[in-house]
Amino acid sequence: MSFSSRMIESFKLPKARISIAVANHAENVVKQIMRAEQKNNTLTVVEVYPGYGLLTQALLKSMKPSIRKVYAFEPEIKCESYLTELSNEFNGRLDFSIDNVSREKTLQKIGEKLENDGTVPTYPWEESQIPLPTKSDNYLLSLLLRALTSRLGFFAFGRVEMNLLFPDPLFKKLFTDEDDTSRRILNLCIQAFMETKLLMVVPQEAVIPKSKENNQLSLVRLTPLVTPKIKPSMYETYKYILSNLYHVPTQPLKQRIRSLACGAENLLPKLSFNKRIPAGKMTVDQVCELTRVFDEWPFRPKLEDLIHAYDEEFGKKRRR
User: Fold this and answer.
1) Which helix (H) or strand (E) holds 139?
2) Mean per-residue pLDDT over the chain, rounded
3) Which CATH number fits domain 232-319: 1.10.8.100, 1.10.3080.10, 1.10.10.10, 3.40.50.720?
4) What does the pLDDT look like over 99-158, one tens digit per residue?
5) Can you say which residues are annotated as belonging to the binding site?
6) Binding site feature residues for S-adenosyl-L-methionine
7) CATH (residue range 5-224)
8) What is the DSSP string of 251-263?
């Protein structure tokens, strides 16, 4: 299948969807992803939001390692004919679903597809394989983190690496902007469970839609840690603590800690770092230490109450 420049210019997806529009840049993205995967002879890849399939085609053409199968999940019906043509061209190695379901359902369907495949082995947690979500946002990342800590979906098959393309505004807010509270919290959640690495940047002139703003895409690899900084069972507690700390991020921890629960200030002597640090300036290791101490505290609130408190706080933020 040949993607002409005129065909690419005619592609229209929702404005929030930023896609690679130049074939050689799509091929470069695939090369970057596959560079660390030479040990694998064949791979099964999951692609989320493939759009019209330019990156999908580059994946299917990959030779070292070769791609046995690409499972693609796309909500836009207008992409169906292009993905059908690609599937026919590559003899069914592309298995795609057009279904405008919630992102929670998409992650569930990914797990079901891989389970029904019957040829995808379950790997020891120390090893890893690649799915390829090709777009990302903060809500999808939250869902991936929850699936990771529960080892659900494709994480049931092992410590799966994720390669995500972030639009520039989201990349900056998530990884470099410390003033965006909700994304700073998400960044600290990522750091507790994953290693991040910027692989490459796709320049603005190689993406659509065209915009006066910087629309470049950053390819980031997220690799789940073999041993996370906190136990997965502490994830909800960790989020609860972060939501409280960042409610007033400029307040010193020795004062802010009282918001966690009545009497929580009694935990301060058990912490190894400076308790005068502003709550919003704490490092991931410091928050993890506080989480472990709080989790072991016999007077802490019940887990169901922590989850409810977190969802109340961030449900409001999502609805604004």
Assistant:
1) helix 138-150
2) 85
3) 1.10.8.100
4) 876 777 888 888 889 899 888 888 899 888 777 777 777 778 888 898 999 988 889 999
5) 74
6) 74
7) 3.40.50.150
8) SBHHHHGGGTSTT
| Tens-digit pLDDT profile for residues 270-297 | 999 999 999 999 999 999 999 999 999 9
Cβ contacts of residue 40 below 8 Å, gap of 6+? Answer: 65, 129
- Can you tell me whether residue 178 is helix, strand or coil? coil
| Residue that the structure tokens 């690419």 belong to | 8
Please name which of 193, 173, 192 lies closest in space to residue 183, comparing C-alpha atoms. Answer: 173
Is it true that the peptide bond before 209 is cis, omega within 30 degrees of 0?
A: yes
Phi then psi dihedrals of residue 202, to 5 deg: -90, 120
d(CA 262, CA 94): 55
First to last CA, the chain: 43
For the chain, the domains span 5-224, 232-319
**Residue 126 pLDDT:** 87
Q: How confident is the model at residue 238 (pLDDT cuts 50, 70, 90)?
A: very high
pLDDT bucket at 178, cuts 50 / 70 / 90: low
pTM: 0.85
State how far the Cα of 49 lies from the Cα of 37, in Å rounded to an integer.
Answer: 23
